[in-house]
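Design job #97: recover the sequence.
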């Protein structure tokens, strides 16, 4: 068992249903002895020798650096919630893209976060474009608010889109969209324009039958939804959704190019059942 005593495994079998922090604590309890390798004692003996010769160490480079990158992401990554990120020098660090990407994928496998990649086409299937900057979504918005220390701000505002440049609202909607899915491998997607020089972006897109429905998390007048207008000009349907703090309503909107579509304004609490609404409601379909 790789030098780990049998009693350690037996002890783990006794407590798996106990409080989860205990399970995390037990490996740390034995961690000190696990990393105490034979080379440590060899180095100590070499140091004591009077006729020391040059010492050459061979082995893997940068062992343990992934742990440092993971700690950096967990410490600083919360402030990038619902924002597009770059792996290279993430969080004002000196870590390279490959190191940060590997750490993010580990955290994604642990289901602590999701790296959502954009889509720039208008037809199904929705295929993430892995070479473009992704968005960072954490497991829980409450944890994000706690670590960012904005709980009071969230509870004191009239419109949650006014908090943290609207990123809290977008993160909540993203969390609800995922919670409303039954597919274990479901992922969130968003749309960006193909032109690299363009900053046009739709917060989320969802597939309904053979159509891609845009979902914006915005407040304010319809004329400000420029990215949504660009998207609707290219699709062959007339359905768009806005999640906001207002009441349910339907607006008939005309884009600058002259296309007319219907914007369904839904309160935040509808975000978790959005796909069910599309399936069951003739009005939204």
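Job complete. Output follows.
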């Amino acid at each position: 068992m790789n030098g780990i005593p049998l009693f350690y495994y037996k002890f783990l079998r006794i407590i798996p249903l106990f409080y989860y922090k205990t399970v995390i604590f037990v490996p740390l309890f034995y961690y000190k002895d696990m990393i105490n390798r034979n080379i440590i004692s060899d180095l100590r003996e070499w140091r004591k020798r009077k006729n020391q010769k040059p010492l050459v160490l061979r082995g893997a480079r940068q062992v343990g650096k992934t742990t440092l990158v993971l700690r950096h992401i967990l410490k600083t990554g919360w402030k990038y919630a619902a924002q597009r990120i770059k792996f290279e020098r993430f969080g004002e660090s000196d870590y390279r893209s490959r190191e940060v990407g590997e750490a993010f994928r580990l955290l994604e496998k642990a289901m602590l976060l999701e790296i959502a990649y954009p889509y720039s086409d208008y037809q199904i299937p929705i295929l993430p474009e892995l070479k473009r900057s992704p968005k960072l979504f954490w497991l829980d918005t409450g944890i994000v608010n706690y670590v960012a220390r904005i709980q009071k701000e969230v509870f004191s505002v009239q419109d949650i889109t006014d908090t943290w440049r609207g990123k809290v609202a977008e993160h909540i909607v993203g969390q609800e969209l995922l919670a409303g899915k039954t597919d274990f491998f479901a992922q969130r997607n968003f749309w960006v324009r193909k032109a690299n020089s363009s900053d046009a972006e739709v917060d989320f897109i969802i597939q309904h039958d053979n159509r891609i429905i845009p979902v914006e998390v915005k407040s304010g007048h319809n004329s400000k939804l420029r990215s949504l207008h660009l998207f609707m000009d290219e699709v062959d349907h007339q359905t768009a959704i806005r999640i906001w703090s207002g009441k349910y309503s339907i607006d008939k909107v005309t884009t600058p190019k002259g296309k007319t579509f219907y914007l369904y304004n839904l309160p935040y609490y509808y975000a978790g059942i959005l796909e069910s609404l599309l399936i069951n409601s003739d009005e939204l379909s």
